[in-house]
Write a structure and sequence with these properties.
five-stranded mixed beta sheet; alpha/beta; Glutaredoxin; Glutathione-dependent peroxiredoxin; Thioredoxin-like_sf; peroxidase; oxidoreductase; redox-active center
Length: 157
């Protein structure tokens, strides 16, 4: 599993925008920037939609006031699902990146197999990344939801 002090792996994501499908790389997103990244097991799922993402939406201005350039939400859902989820949540201040094939999360060592429930998915976690290097990493254990909350990350900034 990735650790504090490690550089993020070099991968491409998928992102649906008004200009069509884009494939930003890790370097495009993180190089020279301070980024808060949080991952959810699945868009439209209860904890993700009712608590995790809404917390980051509500605290986006406070997080960015701490010197954060971008807040990123990622999941192993496809870019169409991520885009629809962003739209339904009115999450304009968050950048949604799809890791549909799981290359990013597998390289981080942050996947879990949920079996018939949904297959391989990302673990729930949040990190602070400075110029591509992980400075804070909070991975949830089991079905907990505390370490990756927006309030927890804001306090760590």
């Amino acid at each position: 599993m990735i650790n504090v002090g490690d550089k993020l792996p070099d991968v491409s994501f998928q992102q649906l925008s008004s200009d069509g499908m884009k494939n930003p790389t890790t370097a495009d997103i993180f190089a020279g920037k301070k980024v808060v990244l949080f991952a959810v097991p699945g868009a439209f799922t209860p904890t993700c939609s009712e608590s995790h993402l809404p917390g980051y939406i509500a605290l986006a201005d406070e997080i960015k006031a701490k010197g954060v350039d971008t807040i990123v939400c990622t999941s192993m859902n496809d870019a169409f699902v991520m885009s629809a989820w962003a739209e339904t949540q009115n999450a304009d201040e968050i950048s949604f990146l799809s890791d549909g094939g799981g290359a990013f999360h597998k390289a981080l060592g942050l996947t879990m197999d949920t079996g018939d429930f949904g297959g391989v998915r990302s673990k729930r976690y949040a990190m602070i990344v400075d110029d591509g290097k992980v400075t804070v990493l909070n991975v949830e254990e089991g079905k907990s939801f505390e370490a990756s909350k927006a309030e927890t990350i804001l306090a760590a900034l």
